[in-house]
Specification:
There is one protein chain. The protein is an alpha+beta fold and 154 residues long. It has a domain of 91 residues. It is 48% helix and 13% strand. It is built from 5 helices and 4 strands. It has a 4-stranded mixed β-sheet with strand order 2-1-3-4. β3 and β4 form a beta hairpin. α3 packs across α5. The chain is globular and about 30 Å long. The relative contact order is 0.20.
Length: 154
């Protein structure tokens, strides 16, 4: 019950910074998901269907099971919103709106599309873009460092 209340509170909150007019009023929808999570599967299915209905809808997909970079990005996003220990998926970010979890098309799906409509109408600051740019820089650093390492199996 406590987790549910917290999730409901977070779902309804607008996080990060206040909305600012964007250069483009077409927001990116960021989806962080896990193949092992049935709620992630439902969110992905919903967003894929929404993209078929609305060709302007742009969804950026971040699978966190197999990608260290995506997992790191998700962790940094949770740190940014003040919930570093939370790390739950699915997580959807539209502009500066964060939706954690997915129930169904009529509830969570409608909320996501409402966030998209609001960002299209008023513009929203993209809360994830700068984190992605930082992640790319980290990957470039990692790629240029020596690859020789020793490790022990635990």
């Amino acid at each position: 019950m406590r987790c549910r209340t917290l999730a409901a509170l977070l779902v309804s909150m607008v996080l990060f910074a206040p909305a600012l007019p964007a250069e483009s009023t077409e927001p990116e929808v960021y989806l962080f998901w896990s193949a092992r999570c049935p709620y992630s599967k439902a969110a992905r299915t919903f967003l894929a269907a929404a993209q078929i209905k609305d060709h302007r809808l742009r969804v950026r997909d971040f699978e966190v099971d197999e990608s260290i970079s995506n997992t790191r990005l998700l962790g940094r996003l949770y740190e940014k919103i003040g919930l570093a220990e939370f790390m739950m998926v699915p997580l959807v970010v539209v502009g500066n709106h964060v939706v954690i979890g997915f129930i169904d098309e009529e509830t969570t799906g409608a909320e996501i599309l409402s966030n998209v409509a609001e960002c299209r109408k008023h513009g929203c600051k993209d809360a994830v873009h700068s984190l992605i740019e930082e992640e790319v820089r980290l990957d470039q650093v990692t790629a240029t460092t020596p690859a020789a390492r020793f490790a022990c199996k635990v």
